[in-house]
Design a protein that fits this description.
The protein has two domains: 24-177 and 216-291, Alpha/Beta hydrolase fold, catalytic domain (Rossmann fold); 178-215, no CATH class. By secondary structure, it is an alpha/beta fold. Helices cover 43% and strands 18% of the residues. The protein has 13 helices and eight strands. Strand 1 and strand 2 (39-47) form a beta hairpin.
Length: 293
Amino acid sequence: MYMRKLLSLLFLLLSWQAIAQQQGLLKESLSTKSKILGYDVKYSIYFPPDYAASNRRYPMLYLLHGYTDNETGWTQFGEAHLIADRLMQAGQIPPMLIVMPDAGVTWYINNVSGKEKYENFFVKEFIPHIDKLYRSRSSKEYRAVAGLSMGGYGTLILAMKHPELFAAAAPLSSAVFTDEDFQNMPDDNYNRIFANIFGQHPKGKERLSSHWNQNSILKLVETTPADTLKKVKYYIDCGDDDFLIKGNMALHAAMLDRHVPHEFRVRDGGHTWTYWRTALPEVLKFVGDTFHR
């Protein structure tokens, strides 16, 4: 009887160990100092299950949060680490590192005053910091960016302005605005969300400043050489009930006009975590397929 209990206990222990080995490791709210920003930036990172047991380098996904969220949003509400575990266990995606930085309400760009240069930080400090500290594959072919809402906007900004850094970009429910919608945005919304980024402008064409033109997704698609845009593979997804669907459809049309290959998905749903959790598996598969050479 004693031996039977001992063997059962040993079997359970080995089973738990096997399950643990199939799960990745999540570290939340780490921080890095930024000389460009003048303050510490927090980030979370997901390590694939075999990271600790291997010496190899891994492809990298930067996963960006939405407006007013932080570096924990994608794991707390999006369950990104659990979804990644499941897909890796099923062999549907390759093992990869997933980094989720905190961007506050910077929109992932340099603001008009030049006092907060998040885009510069991300490109010049953050990516090099991650590549130095962790065993990532540091070439463009193994680096991707994705995000939701404000993070979808940041995904497009980083990929279109810095195509030499990313192989794939997957914006979800991206905050893309036409010139018309941006200039006609209610003053309360503009002043609360965008005045610090693009400047204090009254309603109207004055909002369509040079800083806006430099950071308007639709303007970037229009003015960037098509061959440059084609250096990144795009996966665009937005719900049919999302208040941002108009801008996403305009983006789809603009990329069609420029003959820029991309995947475009409109599914049933709105601007919710339920929608983004169901979108993430396809994003990870798209990114994983891009990493395969």
